[in-house]
UniProtKB/TrEMBL annotation:
InterPro entries: Glutathione_peroxidase, GPX_AS, Thioredoxin-like_sf
Source species: Loktanella gaetbuli
Protein name: Glutathione peroxidase
A Pfam family assignment: GSHPx
Family statement: Belongs to the glutathione peroxidase family.
Gene3D superfamilies registered for this protein in UniProt: Glutaredoxin
Signal sequence residues: 1-18
Alphabetical list of CDD domains matching this protein: GSH_Peroxidase
GO MF, any single term: peroxidase activity
Stored PROSITE patterns: GLUTATHIONE_PEROXID_1 (PS00460), GLUTATHIONE_PEROXID_3 (PS51355)
Length: 172
């Protein structure tokens, strides 16, 4: 009986320590990008596309990253071709974003953000809030506990007062 209890405790701890698949993306740099690694920090997740008319927001995402990074904010770019505006490969997207916008914040590989093949993060956001990206540059803000603190459409700029006020409230 002791053996079974010890085994059950070990399995429970192992499962609890496993990365939540909703919060784990493939990193553009290889390996995983687990949002759980940023526990205690707010995280802004933005579905991006290099060739979108809103791509200038990448500069603002980088500004947010630089302005609030030391206070704890993490900004994550999620390149997606769901709206047919991303480059062909993740490497091309990464290089383009670095060269054109000076982007050096965490990025995922090219990822589905809507529909049946959407990444589990976006399916979770839809289940929790009804929010589904209807275009590129939709934003999801997570609080330090990994809960959804807000969602915004592409028209809300990353450095808008509406968004930065919510970020600042989470950082204080």
């Amino acid at each position: 009986m002791r053996y079974l209890l010890a085994l059950l405790l070990t399995l429970t701890v192992t499962i609890a320590q496993a990365a939540d698949p909703r919060m784990t993306f493939a990193s553009i740099d290889g390996g995983d990008l687990a949002l759980d690694d940023f526990a205690g920090q707010p995280v802004l997740v933005v579905n991006t596309a290099s060739l979108c008319g809103f791509a200038g927001q990448l500069t603002e995402m980088q500004t947010l990253h630089e302005t609030y990074r030391d206070a704890g904010l993490v900004v994550v770019a999620v390149p997606s071709d769901d709206f047919n505006q991303e480059l062909e490969t993740a490497q091309e997207a990464k290089e383009y974003c670095e060269m054109t916008y000076g982007l050096n914040l965490p990025m995922t590989t090219i990822t589905r953000v809507r529909g049946a093949q959407a990444h589990p993060f976006y399916k979770w956001v839809e289940t929790e809030t009804g929010f589904v990206p209807n275009w590129n540059f939709n934003k999801v803000l997570l609080d330090g506990q990994g809960q959804i603190a807000g969602t915004w459409r592409a028209q809300t700029r990353p450095t808008s007062r509406q968004l930065t006020a919510r970020i600042e409230a989470l950082l204080n």
